[in-house]
Amino acid sequence: MNPALVLLALLASVAAQSQDHYDMGWVNGYRQGFNFQCPHGEVIVAIRSYFSENDGSDRLWSFECQPTPAGLGEPSDCWWDDINRAGMEWTSTCTRNGLVAGVQSKYFESTLDREWQFYCCFYKRRCPYSCMKTTDIPEYYREEGELVVPSYGYFIRGAQTTFSGVLRDRQWKYILCRMTDFDCEFDNL
């Protein structure tokens, strides 16, 4: 095969890969706030982000939703939960045993970081169990990040996030839980 054609094909492949992040259905532009909510009765099951140092050390964000199982019923109440402060570590689990059904965020130039808030929904009095935290997402600061809930029946209940003031980026550990098939009377974090 002609070496020039091989090189041309390789360069075309690399160029296409470097532009992949433009077609991901991002909910924000760099340095812009956003408010994302799943349709009623659905929760977030996938999160993707793409970092750019040249665009304010910020990330583009994309979310995917999925209907909850019929046995969980319809959400009886939804609300915006705790908010963090830009540049600070943050741990948030939906209160009242809620599940994450949305996210809103505002960018702050002064810290090159964002404030975050989860939109949580309550499903009767179901209780979480078999909870776990994911590994760091992204694995290293400034990398592309992606979470896909690993199996049906697990739900995002919150997250723990750390901020690097040097690298101006966040890593996330998402809190995933299963939900009981019966009503319970207590908050179980």
TrEMBL record:
Biological process terms in GO annotation: collagen fibril organization
InterPro entries membership: Dermatopontin
Signal peptide: 1-16
Annotated Gene Ontology cellular component terms: extracellular matrix; extracellular space
Main location: secreted
Subcellular location: Secreted
Record keywords, A-Z: Disulfide bond, Secreted, Signal
Family: Belongs to the dermatopontin family.
The protein's name: Dermatopontin
